Write the structure tokens for this entry.
Amino acid sequence: MKSIVFGAAASAAAALLLAASMPVAAEVTRLDIASKAAYGTFRAGEYVLWKGTVHGELAPTEAIPDLDKAGRNARGKVEYAASILLVMPADLSKANGTLLVDIPNRGRVYGVALYNGPRDEPFESGRLDQGTGFLQDQGFALAEVSWELGKGAELPSFAGPDGKPRYVEGVGFAIARDAADFLARNASDGNPLRGAVKHTIASGKSQSGRFLKTLLLNGFNRAGDRRVFDGMHIFVSGSGLLPILQSSPGPESSANGTPNFGNPQLRGIHESPLTIGEIVARVAARGETPPRIIMLSSTSDFLSIRASLGRTGENGIEELPIPSNVRMYDIAGASHAVLLNSDCKLPRERLDWMPVSRATLLHLQRWVVSDTTPPPHRLMPLESAQNDPDVLAAPSHLPKAVVQRPKRDPDGNVMGGVRLPDVAVPLGTHAAQQEPKSGSCPLAGAFLPFALTKETREAQNDKRPSLAERYPSGRDDYVNRIRIAARALQAEGFLLDDDAAVIIASAAALKWPVPTTK
């Protein structure tokens, strides 16, 4: 194990460098690198994979609940440690200058799945496979920084009234802040990315997307007088926050639970403020410059995690203004999660929406680096979901909140939003509510295929036109429409050339007639 030491144990020269680049109240003090390995060869050259542990300390006066009760070291500081993973160019001169800090979800890395997942094998969280190699081809450096109790983070603790330990979970926000600031700005030899980072973007999906919104809301996007994250790429976070600004007895994190059809009244997630506009307003009121933010939502988010409240807030159905530093894109027909092994009763939705992840990441990077404005918001129009059994209603502690769902066309497919070719030229209804609505199945969504012929659909009492009725000349008709939809989405800025080619080739290779199950 290689140990890179800073602070009191460092040489005078290294200590001076560290003091000049890190705030006094909070700093990374040591980086232990446990392993180094080759990762692969890409357009940007050779990449390496490093794994290790980041150590740091905080002033006990920092505004984190119960931090002042935790044990202190000889310098009067409160210590923490967390796992860290780096995927970066072996030759840092080949990096594109942007560090992507991905926030793990329940201890599992997500950066590779979100951006490198291939079409025919959507990656679940936790994967480190190269996949499409998109991030590496583009020259990004990727950091995964653990933050969660019991999931790679060693959080400070203190003895509670019962004598048992309680863990200061809010330190998770400080870990992400300090590690990102260190990797981006520390000038000492101990920083593996020293001099290679000009801009920093945070990425988070679902739980970790809510982590980023809560981090921003509570002032953790500042290190001293500096902004830490210049941009945030937030996926399928609905209208939720993360209830970890508290201490808990463990062993699991307070971030684990979410309201669902079995427990719709769970507190701590859908709390004010619900919209990104309200969060950004609080950031600006503190005198901070908020980051550029791109937010993506899936169809399942509106059915199962109250995503509409992220647009309307807790009072009625009027949509609140979206601030100028934010772009919001709804991915029509997408599901919140990929569940490869589950007991869901209906065929699982398998729409590959990673192409939109890739395209919007490049938009966000250009917005951050060169102030190039991304495409306008692309939202799905909403309609009433009152008494709809397929939609998770508002909790009782928000009596004026009204949950809505996306409007649907006669096929049952949602209208508006970013429409990938598979949805613009459908083979069935995408992201219908899954069954059973217990557990995680509602996050997966269902795909309901169209009947092959008019006779079959009539026998099944299916009002949706069959494949034979939709595509009279069969596969050629279908592929031509896919090609047109792909080129249109390219022109709109939501599909990269490489992904358009893959989608068209996949359609051309599709067996026809299409099987009725998926």
